[in-house]
Amino acid sequence: MAGIRMTVGMSSSIVDRYTAMLMIPKGGGWMGADRRPKIDFGLLKRAISKKLTGSIKYRSRAGYDAQRYWSERFNKYGSSLRGAGHEGLSEEANEKMYLEAAGVFQGVVGPILGHLTEPRVLEIGCGTGFYTSLFNQLGLDNYTGVDITNVLFDRHRRRFPRYRFLQADITKHPIDGSYDLAIMIDVIEHIVTRDALEAAFANLRAALAPGGYLIVGPQFDQSRRHLFYVHFWSVEDVKTAYAEWDEVERKAFRNGILLVFQKPKDVDPPPRIA
Ligand SMILES: C[S@@+](CC[C@H](N)C(=O)[O-])C[C@H]1O[C@@H](n2cnc3c(N)ncnc32)[C@H](O)[C@@H]1O
User: Fold this and answer.
1) Ligand 1 centroid vs 130 CA: distance in angstroms?
2) Which of 19, 30, 137, 203 has a CA between 20 and 30 Å from the CA of residue 167?
3) Mutual angle of helices 91-114 and 130-137, in 10-degree steps
């Protein structure tokens, strides 16, 4: 990309790749007052880590070491929305993005909670507690938040004393209890192998009571690996896993699709006697 000084000690092709990836606009927006190009080194470092060094640092047989990755991320950002949200965006931009998501989510979850009596809610990947807080505001009594890292659990327990928080990897551990509603928002794309995805779905299926609901997303048109810790799964991948369940709703959510399923009320019908 023309105009970038090579004093940063990188070849022009690497600079081209990352400035393009960071979507630094050509001819504006990144020029300093002295008309010399500004480079956001924080952004550049994050881009290099996501594209190159992260895949080496967090490499594991399951695709990446999710517990280490998310623990380090929450240790770095604390309860800032950037920890679970978009690291490359400001806190304000993350707040805006989360508020839009919350609007869609509330439209989906409201009617479900409305016709359940004393609902028991399970959240997989509760992160910074954004959806925990929504449930708290809605007056929900029975909530269990699960996450692969417990870094933020002390804060959550102080903030939401009536709620339960459990550390578990949904791709490895069955979840204790039985629930009327399970949500897994912005977690599925961080399960990066098909085996792990199937294991997570089996654990979710087992955690839901007959007639219980699952809200999961976002899903996309096509399944594809994106970064070492991101795999976009397709609507079809998820539909196939829940073929026996009713799809009760699908909604545009963030940049993909949110799916809502209901587990059959009669899971194992008794054999028919002729
Ligand atoms: C992108 S954040 C989303 C957090 C929250 N759901 C939200 O939307 O703000 C992904 C969350 O999933 C958790 N996570 C990732 N893989 C997990 C796994 N295998 N089992 C349980 N939690 C997981 C991470 O620790 C993190 O809190």
Assistant:
1) 11
2) 137
3) 50
